[in-house]
């Protein structure tokens, strides 16, 4: 497997970033959906802090992935893919990038405008990106929550399309994002059988009776 992307498949760096982001989104979603129902106390504060730190990690990985894609390029569309599917896939990818940026930023904005401190895994504090403002806090919270459901819908649609191509189209859309995959070489054309040459007739014997 190559480090950079090729025309046929995603490289090792793109694969690592892709699956790390998938796992992060899953973890952030589970924590975000359960932490609001927790009773107030130290444990809830810790879970909220973890949610924020994971969100900042997601933002960092998305920035790295976008920069790497701009540097390493992207594979060509799988052979035989209709043009409209290429367009939909491209729009979906860029919408996912936009939302993966928007989710941590709106969360950071909500945290800042609500007057809460922001630490990264307890290691250091991050600056506020807005002054305390109840109206802005309400707006950013709404954008954060609605953006999550939109991101979830796009992620499920993206995954569903990949599995559809894998199971029903039997193409390399999903396989080329999997580590260790080697595309099967096309079967060699059968060599034609050598022509059977009939033996030349024996020359007539002029001395024969």
UniProtKB/TrEMBL annotation:
Domain Cytochrome b561 bacterial/Ni-hydrogenase: 9-180
Positions with biased composition (Pro residues): 200-209
Gene3D superfamilies documented for this protein: Transmembrane di-heme cytochromes, Chain C
Chain segments annotated as coiled-coil in the UniProt record: none
Membrane topology designation: Multi-pass membrane protein
Primary localization: membrane
Low complexity composition bias: residue spans: 188-199
UniProt keyword Electron transport present: yes
Cofactor(s) the record lists: heme b
Region (Disordered): 188-209
SUPFAM superfamilies: Transmembrane di-heme cytochromes
Entry keyword Repressor: no
Cellular localisation: Cell membrane
Pfam families: Ni_hydr_CYTB
Domain of life: Bacteria
Family to which this protein belongs: Belongs to the cytochrome b561 family.
Protein name: Cytochrome b
Organism of origin: Lysobacter silvisoli
């Amino acid at each position: 497997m190559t480090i950079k992307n090729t025309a046929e498949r995603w490289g090792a760096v793109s694969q690592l970033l892709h699956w790390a982001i998938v796992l992060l989104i899953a973890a952030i979603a589970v924590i975000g959906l359960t932490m609001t129902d927790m009773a107030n106390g130290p444990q809830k504060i810790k879970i909220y802090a973890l949610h924020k730190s994971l969100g900042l990690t997601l933002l960092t990985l998305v920035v790295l992935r976008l920069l790497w894609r701009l540097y390493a390029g992207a594979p060509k569309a799988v052979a035989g893919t209709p043009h409209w599917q290429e367009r939909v896939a491209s729009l979906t990818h860029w919408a996912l990038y936009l939302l993966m940026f928007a989710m941590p930023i709106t969360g950071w904005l909500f945290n800042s405008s609500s007057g809460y401190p922001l630490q990264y895994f307890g290691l250091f504090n991050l600056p506020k990106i807005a002054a305390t403002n109840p109206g802005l806090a309400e707006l950013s919270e709404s954008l954060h929550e609605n953006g999550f459901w939109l991101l979830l819908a796009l992620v499920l649609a993206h995954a569903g399309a990949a599995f559809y191509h894998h199971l029903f189209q039997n193409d390399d859309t999903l396989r080329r994002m999997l580590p260790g995959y080697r595309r099967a070489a096309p079967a060699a054309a059968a060599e034609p059988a050598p022509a059977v040459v009939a033996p030349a007739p024996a020359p007539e014997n002029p001395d024969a009776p």
